[in-house]
Here is the input.
Amino acid sequence: MRKTLNILANSFRLTMQELMVNKLRTSLSLIGISFGIFCIIGVLATVNSLEMNIQNQLKSLGTNTIFIDKWQYTGGPDYPWWKFVNRPVPKFEEIKFIKERSNLVSAIAFDIDARLDVQYDNYALQGVSMSGVTEEEINIQPLIMAYGRYISGNEFSDGSAVAVIGFTNAENLFGSAALAIGKEVKMKNSKATIIGVIKKMGQNMIGQDYDQSIILPYRFARQIVNENTSSPKIIVKGKANVSSEALANNLEGIMRSIRKLSPTQEDNFSLNQISSFSDRVSSMFGSINLGGWAIGILSLVVGAFGIANIMFVTVKERTPVIGLKKAIGAKKRSILSEFLLESAIICILGGLAGLILVYVLTVILTNIFNFPVYISGGILALAISICIIIGILSGIIPALTAARLDPVVAIRSK
Here is the structure.
């Protein structure tokens, strides 16, 4: 152990001497390693942070949550919209039958969405995202109030003219979100009293922006808009011990029974599972990670050749010293270890420079774009491992050349 530490200390000292003596040559070689690590770790850190953010938002909806809609929530150029456009929309009355026939459901809600102009005195917001929801939606998609309160059970049952407004909309309409409580706003020919302001949440990655929304009780909302043309959907959350697949199978049978479909008829509804969104997100970001690896590996290969060149030159310059060490008893493995460690240390220094650049990137993304990016311990370990592996591979041939030198020939070389 003591001998190994001594070799490591000597290798580090010789590496630093090499850097000080040949600054330009070593720096140019380190650029490839630094850029390669920056590409790989930068892409991994950014993509992993982005994926985790989206996955957390999906998990907030529940991994066993299903949206029953006429539309299937997939996109792409081959999306068969003509297959879904003539389907019947979900009906509020269908919630009752689902509750009666399923013992796997923990919460179920009905939701309609539309764009409305919201007015207060002489101020107006155009195209505000309005959601008319039923009582149990808060159990599926939890919201935190910054001011005031959420809609009560009686207000849902009575279809009271009350509303919960998003933080940004409250600021734009009333000057301050705190002033929104108790104010009366107009939507089309109806008025509603603001009873709560949603805590500022920012726009998430799954199409929801509660900051610029207004939420109404469903029975009140359907007096303002036509629910059949307002993207009606049923949102079902399964019990904690129920998988998304089991819930989907259960709901499919129930919906076919409600719609009175024969065994030969296709489903005229879609069951959109949150878990399938999560799988698609993982697949998409996996492809992006591969792109980052491809760019990074190309840079690392260039850097590896640079490191190998440095080590060949170093062996050539130290040939007399190597011969002297072998003449006084140094073994091949000691010479081999010395040069391999030196090569690995050079790569680690290049990797540290790349990590510093990645850290600068995380600060920029976090502060300017308000998007939290972090470098996990696993990514740091990966970066160090890559540097050590590249260092050993780059230095293996020069180190073997040094270890096999004949001491007499090496001492006489110039």
